[in-house]
Write a structure and sequence with these properties.
CATH topology of the domain at 87-280 in chain B: MetI-like fold
Structural class of chain B: mainly alpha
Order of helices and strands of chain A: HHHHHHHHHHH
Distance between the termini of chain A: 41 Å
Radius of gyration of chain A: 26 Å
Number of domains of chain A: 2
Number of strands of chain B: 0
Order of helices and strands of chain B: HHHHHHHHHHHH
CATH architecture of the domain at 87-280 in chain B: Orthogonal Bundle
Largest interface: A-B, 58 and 57 residues
Mean pLDDT of chain A: 84
CATH superfamily of the largest domain in chain A: MetI-like
Largest sheet of chain B: none
Shape of chain A: flat
Mean pLDDT of chain B: 84
Oligomer: heterodimer
Largest sheet of chain A: none
CATH class of the domain at 87-280 in chain B: Mainly Alpha
CATH superfamily of the domain at 87-280 in chain B: MetI-like
Number of strands of chain A: 0
Low-confidence stretches of chain A: none
């Protein structure tokens, strides 16, 4: 945008003006295209697809909202155990995810990978695969594989967190200071000793911070695992929804909020203690 | 700390101590915390009745199921015109949800950034709470709530994605805002600019590029979420996923899953490329 960025030529100023004009036209075209695209999306999704009659106008919506706002407090004592289950599912899922992401991070870090042509792309692919499949889909697959219960939920949460943990870990491994590694090699350390004394101490704070962050996210993930057949708060939500007890639904949502607020406080202090 | 160690060396001179990284209170606390975590893990394994051998057994079983039941993916099903239209609608929902989410989250992030917020007493907690609560509740729960209130269809899905994007982008935006250089802000304030002017002339120019990158990333994540929003009645391709899973048409499920993975990879590559280009403009 500044004058120094203008192309310098024989007709310097004219060229600058032409460059600027072209740029402005490009910007306008970009904005116009985006606006047209968004307007079309808006028309197609909101005007065309929505059944306004069935929604019943402001009164109908207000009526439904009112049923949500009459909170059913009698459900509160029944929420404690599912909340604990959700927390347990999140914790176990995170730990399991860490275990799974160890080999993935090892494969996917360019400087320690066993083979650049086979294992490195494999590790990278596993990272992307884990992140690109939504936790609901992972849960559906595992419900098919191991049946109903908390286990498919834990496995789904674990698989979903592999991508993030191993990606950050691999990046941390790639950015380590190579000198300790060289020193351990120079005094005759084997591969395992290099890993344990040269690499792990350097990346440990980053990894623990990431794990705590991921645990925080996993609480909200495991709160919905009940929708596809694992227990916890999601199951209570699903049941209240099926009974059309909207007051209870609101209470479950509030319980999730409180649980996550607690998790956020814990993870805040834990991260402060680690780093 | 220094004093304690010096007095300690004076009082008990010739005790040879084994070196350890953490001294008494810290080491005990660390030990207790690790013990507590392990106890919690053990208790939860026992409470949730988890058979540890089944965890490892799950993967061979998953592969077996994928190979026998899901294997030849029914690609005809996903090349059907109706299905492709639903894919297009998923894309539309993610675009709209991402756009509305980004538009709503910029003012909320402004309120929720500690250094430039309008008022620390009222606006800051409000912005924080709005962002935190839309982030805490999972997008599928938002979808179910909106579907209940507004009925099935893409409107519910779009609104759910909007709330999801408010939470996601709002946090990144406010983190970015809290890291800006305060010099221009103070200069504008000292010549008597109101908060809006400060935001427009001192803050926005600093974060424009970063915000564009975050907005593109938000769309990427919103697209990932949009593929399953339909599972709970929010429109788009998720509805086909629900129908085929409930009718046990595994080969079709496999085809849909493959398509989802492919599309998400494409979206991720596209957004990565765009973000790299925008990062160069900095």
């Amino acid at each position: 945008m500044s004058i120094t960025a203008a192309p310098v030529s024989a007709h310097g100023f004219d060229a600058y003006l032409a460059h600027k004009r072209r740029r402005r036209i490009n910007n306008w075209l970009l904005v116009a295209c985006s606006v047209a695209l968004l307007a079309w999306c808006f028309w197609d999704t909101i005007m065309f697809d929505t059944d306004w009659q069935r929604m019943g106008g402001a009164l109908g919506i207000g009526g439904t909202l009112e049923r949500f706002l009459l909170i059913d407090w009698s459900l509160l004592p029944k929420l404690l155990v599912p909340a604990l289950e959700t927390l347990m599912m999140a914790t176990l899922g995170t730990i399991l995810g860490c275990v799974f992401s160890l080999p993935v991070a090892w494969f996917g870090a360019a400087n320690v990978t066993p083979s650049k042509y086979f294992f490195y792309p494999l590790g990278r692919f596993l990272m992307v695969l884990s992140r690109s499949i939504h936790e609901i889909i992972w849960a559906l697959l595992f419900v098919g594989a191991v049946g109903l219960g908390a286990l498919p939920g834990i496995l789904a949460v674990a698989m979903r967190s592999v991508g993030f943990i191993s990606k950050i870990t691999a990046e941390a491994i790639e950015n380590i200071d190579p000198k300790p590694v060289e020193a351990i090699r120079a005094v005759g350390g084997n591969q395992f000793q290099v890993m344990y004394y040269g690499i792990v101490p350097q990346i440990l704070p980053v990894i623990i911070g990431t794990i705590i962050f991921e645990w925080d996210i996993n609480i909200r993930r495991s709160a919905i695992m009940g929708l596809v057949g694992a227990g916890g708060l999601g199951l209570v939500f699903f049941r209240q929804m099926a009974m059309f007890n909207y007051g209870g639904v609101t209470l479950v949502v509030l319980a999730v909020l409180v649980l996550i607020a607690i998790g956020e406080v814990i993870s805040h202090y834990a991260r402060k203690a680690v780093i | 700390m220094m004093q304690i160690t010096t007095t300690a060396t004076h009082s008990m001179p010739a005790v040879k101590r084994k070196w350890s990284r953490y001294r008494h209170p810290e080491s005990t606390i660390r030990f207790a915390v690790i013990l507590a975590i392990l106890a919690f893990l053990g208790y939860s394994i026992a409470y949730l009745n988890i058979d540890l051998s089944r965890i490892l057994g799950a993967f061979p079983r998953l592969v077996e199921i994928l190979a026998t039941r899901y294997f030849p993916p029914d690609l005809n099903y996903v090349s059907d015109a109706d299905f492709l239209r639903s894919v297009l609608r998923t894309l539309e929902m993610s675009l709209l949800g991402g756009f509305f989410g980004v538009v709503c989250s910029i003012p909320l992030a402004w309120l929720a950034a500690r250094n430039i917020t309008v008022s620390k007493r009222i606006a800051y907690p409000f912005g924080r709470f709005a962002i935190m609560s839309s982030r805490s509740i999972h997008e599928t729960i938002w979808t179910i709530l909106f579907v209940t209130v507004l009925g099935f269809g893409m409107l519910a899905g779009t609104l759910a994605l909007t709330v999801f994007c408010v939470g996601f982008a709002g946090k990144l935006f406010s983190d970015e805002l809290e890291a800006i250089d305060m010099g221009p802000v103070e200069a504008m304030r000292s010549v008597g600019a109101n908060p809006l002017q400060v935001f427009q002339y001192a803050v926005l120019p600093q974060v424009r590029v970063a915000f564009t990158g975050i907005a593109i990333y938000t769309w990427d994540v919103a697209f990932r979420a949009a593929t399953v929003v339909g599972f709970f009645g929010g429109g788009g391709m998720g509805w086909y996923l629900k129908r085929t899973t409930q009718q046990m048409e595994s080969t079709r499920v496999a085809a849909i899953l493959l398509l989802i993975i492919g599309l998400v990879l494409l979206a991720e590559l596209g957004s990565g490329w765009l973000r790299k280009r925008i990062g160069k403009m900095r």
